[in-house]
Design a protein that fits this description.
151 residues; mainly alpha
């Protein structure tokens, strides 16, 4: 049976990942601090600390993959009709020949990646709240779509 202190620390470990909205990289820094202070003393806190960090690292990986697909899709669509010579010689670049019909596939791929990224961020927020509630009730919670980086 977990003590109230263990439940509170594990709950705050989950909730501390919401600091990303106020402090850059807060979703990694604060869970690591809370987890590392009590991981040796409590298996419950250790489990939840690993879950939070694995979830945040998984979301980082998914976001990077989506960005690596979306940005080139948009750039290729935008600069498809611009010659390499005009880019090299710093000539004025005009995108007046842009045609949506010729670029619809790449634009669709880029927009789908942006949409998936937005859905991931919304799901992240609600999953963190849900995990915090489960943890405060003393249950072990495992985030979905998580890659177990830390075992």
């Amino acid at each position: 049976m977990e003590t109230t202190t263990e439940k509170n620390i594990a709950t705050f470990t989950h909730l501390s990942s919401l600091t990303q909205y106020f402090i850059p990289f807060g979703n990694y820094i604060f869970p690591i601090i809370l987890w590392s202070t009590k991981k040796e003393e409590s298996e419950f806190v250790d489990h939840h600390g690993k879950q939070v960090l694995n979830f945040q690292l998984s979301l980082l990986l998914y976001s990077l993959v989506l960005i690596m697909i979306a940005i080139p899709s948009f750039l290729i669509s935008a600069f498809k009709n611009v010659s390499f010579q005009s880019l090299v010689h710093h000539n004025d670049i005009t995108l007046s020949n842009f045609n949506f019909e010729d670029n619809i596939a790449l634009l669709t791929v880029g927009l789908i990646c942006v949409l998936i990224f937005g859905l991931l961020k919304v799901a992240e927020f609600f999953l963190i709240i849900y995990a915090s509630i489960k943890t405060s009730n003393g249950e072990r919670y495992k985030y979905p779509i998580t890659i177990p980086f830390i075992k």
